[in-house]
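Please, structure for the following, as tokens.
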Amino acid sequence: MANGGDRVGRAATRNDVPAVAACLASAFFDDPVWGDWTFPDTSTRTRDLVPFMTPMAELGLGEISTEMTPAAEAITIWTPPGASYVPPEDERHDDVARPT
């Protein structure tokens, strides 16, 4: 925390999912795996990364902690010890990653 314990942002809510997904997409745009390899076409990468990151943003709302700056310029998703980020029965990424 900045300034000796002052919070910089706030907890994300369900209404913040689109902004959190967009921030994640921006952060991973040039990532060698989630950007270049998964979505090699840079002209459509942002379009494709946002729906790919939306389940990540949604999963960050349960027992996971997602914090964000007021306008979602920066976000952080924390998975505490013992928590599961993606339960085995969750198939949301199967739908997103399946070629069309």
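Residues 10-97 form one domain. DSSP finds four helices and three strands in the chain.
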